[in-house]
Amino acid sequence: MTIVRLIPEGERRTSDQTKQVNRRAPGFDGAEIRRLRSQGQTVRDIAAAAGLSVKTVRNRQLKP
User: Fold this and answer.
1) Residue 8 Rama label (left phi>0; alpha psi -120 to 50; beta)
2) What is the per-residue pLDDT for 39?
3) Residue 37 pLDDT grade (very low, low, confident, very high; cuts 50, 70, 90)
4) Is the pTM of this model over 0.85?
5) Which residue, 2, 32, 40, 49, has most beta carbons within 10 Å?
């Protein structure tokens, strides 16, 4: 048995307009973050410059 749900027009439009949340910040991969850290910048400084959270910067510096 298949359950079918009719989606109201407003809900369908909202679903189509959603943005992808998990996206990479351009130019700030793990290698770039490690390079900035080796120059003496703090994780907080890098996060502020990249527009990322401190946790994201810490996680990315561990990945190649």
Assistant:
1) beta
2) 96
3) very high
4) no
5) 32
